[in-house]
Amino acid sequence: xxxxxxxxxxxxGTGYTKIGYAGNTEPQFIMPSCIAIRxxxxxxxxxQRRLMxxxxxxxxxxxxxxxxxxxxxxKWPIRHGIVEDWDLMEKFMEQVIFKYLRAEPEDHSFLMTxxxxxxxxxxxxxxxxxxxxxxxPGLYIAVQAVLALxxxxxxxxxxxxxxxxxxxxSGDGVTHAIPVAEGYVIGSxxxxxxxxxxxITYFIQQLLREREIGxxxxxxxxxxKAVKERYCYICPDIVKEFTKYDxxxxxxxxxxxxINAISKxxxxxxxxxxxxxxxxxxxxxxxxNPDFMQPISDVVDEVIQNCPxxxxxPLYKNIVLSGGSTMFRDFGRxxxxxxxxxxxxxxxxxEELSGGILPGLRRRRTGLLPTSFVFHLETKGPRIWRKxxxxxxxxxxxxx
Length: 400
What we know:
Blueprint: E1 8-12, E2 16-21, E3 29-32, E4 35-37, H1 46-56, E5 60-62, H2 64-67, E6 73-75, E7 78-79, E8 82-83, H3 86-100, E9 110-114, H4 120-133, E10 139-143, H5 144-151, E11 165-170, E12 175-181, E13 184-185, E14 191-193, H6 197-211, H7 220-231, H8 238-247, H9 249-252, E15 254-259, E16 266-271, H10 274-277, H11 296-306, H12 312-317, E17 319-322, H13 331-365, H14 372-380, E18 386-387, E19 390-391, H15 395-399
Helix pairs in contact: 6-7, 11-13
């Protein structure tokens, strides 16, 4: 009996693509989701365009190779988790399968991922490319949040394997709070958060520019991204963090060294407040986006409260972090603390509200019969229990 080749797994995100084979504990390759293509010749040079037409179809690079090609135009086919250029995406998939996985697509089934709010048209385009272009024998398109819940089973802290939980999926281009019940996404309760890794990079870039510390303009975005990935973390209290840096700057300020791409000279910058102010926009989004004021803890609580009441407790019990932008140090601890404060504040408010209502209902809730009831019973008889043909309590008449 011939051994069946393992399925191929491809997870295409806005910033990075993860590829590998099913059964492995980690991806074989993690690469940027970009493609470098050579710009076409000018409109007037028709002869050269005809000669280069066939060559241009093969002359492209993906991933890290694409970033290292300064003479090529770098394109990103995926934006905010949704594929926007299917021609480039087909070229991207071609090199992923043949060059990196080195697989014959006719021999492997494929597991591919999609964002929670993916459109049916995009799903159809993906299936069309995989079946008609690559002739795959089998294809399964799974929602990233469900796969993240299943992947959380490998954690030592997971005591019960369940596919019910809420997934905070934050990548480079988009962040979603996705409730999942028994493996099915509750689509009507998904909440989109307009804060992601790329917004953090832009915010750090803005902070560095305001300081005017001599970063080459063409490398400011690259430098901000490197600062984010190397030095940033989540702080428990932003005011105390400012005080800590002001009291002992030498202990907390880091040095970043880079090389000017043009002059090849080395430059150095101090990284201070940017270390904690960058990822802080998850919990204070007004720092970077004045149109969105809701912290991520409030978003998670709102999503759970919008779900059916019978799954709310399991959702609170199982909150899974997914995506590169949730990997900042102490992200989970800060989210857990802030979410607990939101829930406790709501419970306290409900207790105070019930405390004001119950005293007014105390007389109606009592089951004791007053002495005056005996007089009414003797004068009106047993019919006091009925009024207008319906069940009636005489206590309301006696006590009013």
